[in-house]
Amino acid sequence: RTPAGAEVQKSVPLTVSRMLGLVAVEPALFSPNEDGRNDRLSVSFGLSVPSAVGVRVTREGRWVASPLTATYAPGLHTFEWNGMRAAGRIKDGDYSLIVEASDALVGPVSVAVPFSVDSTAPRVRFLPARGIRLEVNEPGRLWVRIDGARVEREVRKAGVVRVRWNGAASRVRVVAEDAAGNRSKPVVRLRRPGSG
Prior knowledge:
Layout: E1 24-26, E2 29-30, E3 41-47, E4 51-59, E5 62-72, E6 75-81, E7 84-85, E8 88-89, E9 93-103, E10 107-117, E11 124-127, E12 132-136, E13 140-146, E14 149-155, E15 159-163, E16 171-177, E17 187-190
Parallel strand pairs: 2-10
Antiparallel strand pairs: 1-3, 3-6, 4-5, 4-9, 7-8, 9-10, 11-12, 12-15, 13-14, 13-16, 16-17
């Protein structure tokens, strides 16, 4: 509608390509630090016709890596990436993975999917207290072993965590695990009986 109230229409040609199907990455939180947990990013996509396919990784619009360039037949395809590039392992942060295929009718067709990298282990430490007080630097899970008994505790935010325990708690061992599967080094506290 114009300022005078007249209605204006314009037709433009539009071509839709269905040659590149669903693109997905798993896990969405990737941890390429060779610890055996979430170390590989699995990328899947579908093609309706044969095509040359390129995969790029960008961060804030800037190129970071090109883990794949290949030609594929029609169908569903999957490849895994270990997070390595010419300059070394990809750094922690938020990224986009872009799958681009060549369509003879419309030219290049691309789909971008977000993912995040977290390869840094969480930190946990004991705080001075009569009971069991810990400080953790990020959300995740705590695996606590108290005098041989195992306690699991979910941590929703960084900060101080109190673990309730009735008993002496002479030997306490704690490991923190974050959402990406990274684990802290164990921290251990030993107390002599009667030391509070």
